[in-house]
User: Fold this.
Amino acid sequence: MSGGELDRRQVVAALLAGRGDLVVVSGLGSATYDVAAVEDHDRNFYLWGAMGGAVALGLGLALARPITPVAVITGDGDMLMGMGSLATVATQNPGNLSIVVLDNGLYGETGMQRTHTALGADLVRIAKGCGIAHASRASTAGEVAGIAAQLQGTAGGARFFSVAVAADVPTNRRSFEELLVRPRTGEGKNRLDDALGYKDFIRLGKEHQMRVVESLYCEAQPSAPPPQADYEALRDEILADLKAAMPVDIVLLMLHGAQMAAGYDDCEGDILERARAIVGADVPIGAELDLHANVTAKMLANATVLMACKEFPHIDFSERAADLFDLVRRARQGEIRPVMAKFDIPMVGAYPTTRQPMRSFVDETHAMEGKDGVLSVSLVHGFAWSDFPEMGASVVVVTDGDKAKAEGLAPMRPSP
Assistant:
């Protein structure tokens, strides 16, 4: 029971037009962008990467603050991942909690696959079956206005609304420009604080009294691959900035590690290969990756150091940026000679690092680094929705000039 003609941004703007003291919890992916696009309000709680957790957090806030209206705004994919929370909402039934699901019938985060709502699952009936009496569906602007009028309620039991919104278009250049920082023109300078890793490279370079040349930073909601021309335009702007800055001593890139575009299965490998062609063999190139990367042979061949964040949820981009900066700087000064090895892990899944066994694995990587010539150990979880041969989890080890050691450590086999 999904899909409609309503524009999701316009729906969220209408819902929040008279928000007053409303607390808003936004769910995974696009819903967080939608809420932030209206206003970066101090009563917004963004759960961009917390899969299926929006309703549960909203319930906790509603119970903790019973006279404060709380609204959860999330998508159908996130709601399906946290379906059991609806039963808990029904048993507690806080009158100050409203749940709004923007239902386009697609998993926008993972490539626009159809969700269960596109195949007949009815979230409103499910909510009613759990015991939420006030559950309804909206597909017109007037019905959305009716929902907005109820968000300030604090009595009469919890409310659930499913809003049929239009299916998102595939990622395009406009998608990237919504979260773009372009220092040479001043565009997006108010977004710099959110550009983790990238902003840290800039700060660290200046602290070390380097001439820092900043190219663009942009990101987009994961979705279907963008058109070839849109990817190439953004890529070529970065490469043009690098050419204009030559000669350079080091290159630092903040990349995801699993980007695809029409005509390109491995955008990061493409960017690294072209950057290497510009700077030559002797200039160190470091790339920080999201741990949900697919590390490819082309990436390994053209980077000096690849380093993924260690935590999922991702809370350590700034720390890893500092680690990467240090290694690349030392490589340029001739203090170290990084070499890399990769070991493929034949697994596909989600591996939160907040619980075992991943917690102990991550702790082990910290213990290994900085000793016996080991510079970095990255546990790369892979991006399971990439449909190409090099998709998958891996371990990437960087050592100081010892390829055999890197290759021996990459499998991370238990000590005898």
Q: What stands out?
A: DSSP finds 15 helices and 16 strands in the chain. The two ends are 55 Å apart (CA to CA). The chain has a mean pLDDT of 91. The CA atoms of residues 186 and 366 lie 38 Å apart.
